Amino acid sequence: MSLADRDRAVVWHPFTQAATADPPLAVVSAAGSWLQLADGTRVFDAISSWWTCLIGHSHPRLVAAIADQAARLDHVLFAGCTHPGAVELAEKLIERAPLGLARVFYSDDGSTAVEVALKMAVQFHAQNGQPQRTRFLALESGYHGDTFGAMSVGDPADFAGPFAPLLWPVTRVAVPTVDGDPLAADIDLAPALAALDRQLLACGEALAAVIVEPLVQGAGGMRLYPPAFLAALAARVRAHGGLVIADEVMTGFGRTGRLFACEHGDLSPDLLCLAKGLTGGTLPLAATLATEEIYTVFLGKDARSALLHGHSFTANPIACAAALASMRVADDEQLVDKARALHALYAGILPPLRALPGVQSVRWLGGIGVLELAGGGYHDAEKSRKIRDLCLRQGVLIRPLGPVIYTLPPLGSVLADVRRAWQVIADAVTATAQSGTIVAPDVENSP
Ligand SMILES: Cc1ncc(COP(=O)(O)O)c(C=O)c1O
Question: Measured from the CB, is residue 409 less than 6 Å from ligand 1?
Answer without folding.
Answer: no
